């Protein structure tokens, strides 16, 4: 009766695990081949959610060469500002694709790897456990 549900749950777990490994390899490649640079926070963007709470997201300016500056809007936002205007942070970017930029920090590099791995673990343990129990 529950077999299709747990089979799908187990399959989703394997899919999440695959995406997690893909994200990890993508980050590993970016760190190995990307260019690291110092960036300066030039602005804090305020965002208001549907409940009226305000969160802050840093906007960084970094240089790809001595005369070429670029702007990076961090996708992460927090209720208390993590950075202040003028703060420095290290970024890594792909010199062939400037849309691929990450803050060099544990969460800045590996957040999606961790989230997907957690979802994969839960799905594989629950779905796989039920399937093992059913077929043993």
Explain what the structure shows:
- This protein has 136 residues and is an alpha+beta fold.
- It has one domain (3-135).
- 45% of the residues lie in helices and 34% in strands.
- The chain is built from two helices and five strands, in the order H-E-E-E-E-E-H.
- The protein has a five-stranded antiparallel sheet.
Helix-strand string: HEEEEEH
Strand order of the biggest β-sheet: 3-2-1-4-5
Uncertain residue ranges: none
Major β-sheet annotation: 5 strands, antiparallel
Share of helix, binned: 40-55%
Assess the beta-strand content as a share of residues. 25-35%
Shape: elongated
Query: Would you report the number of β strands?
Result: 5
In short:
Helices cover 45% and strands 34% of the residues.
Secondary structure: elements and pairs:
Elements: H1 3-33, E1 35-48, E2 54-65, E3 68-73, E4 88-94, E5 97-103, H2 106-135
Antiparallel strand pairs: 1-2, 1-4, 2-3, 4-5
Helix pairs in contact: 1-2
Notable features of this structure?
alpha+beta, five-stranded antiparallel sheet, 136 residues
């Amino acid at each position: 009766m529950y077999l299709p549900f747990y089979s799908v749950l187990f399959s989703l777990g394997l899919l999440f695990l695959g995406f997690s490994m893909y994200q990890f390899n993508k980050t590993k490649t970016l760190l190995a081949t990307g260019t690291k640079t110092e960036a300066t926070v030039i602005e804090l963007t305020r965002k208001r959610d549907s409940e009226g709470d305000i969160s802050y997201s840093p906007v960084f300016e970094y240089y790809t060469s001595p005369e070429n500056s670029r702007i990076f809007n961090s996708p992460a936002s927090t209720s208390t500002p993590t950075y202040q205007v003028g703060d420095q942070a290290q970024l890594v970017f792909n010199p062939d694709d400037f849309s691929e930029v990450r803050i060099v920090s544990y969460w800045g590099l590996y957040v999606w790897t961790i989230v997907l791995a957690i979802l994969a673990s839960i799905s594989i343990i629950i779905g796989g456990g039920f399937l093992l129990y059913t077929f043993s």
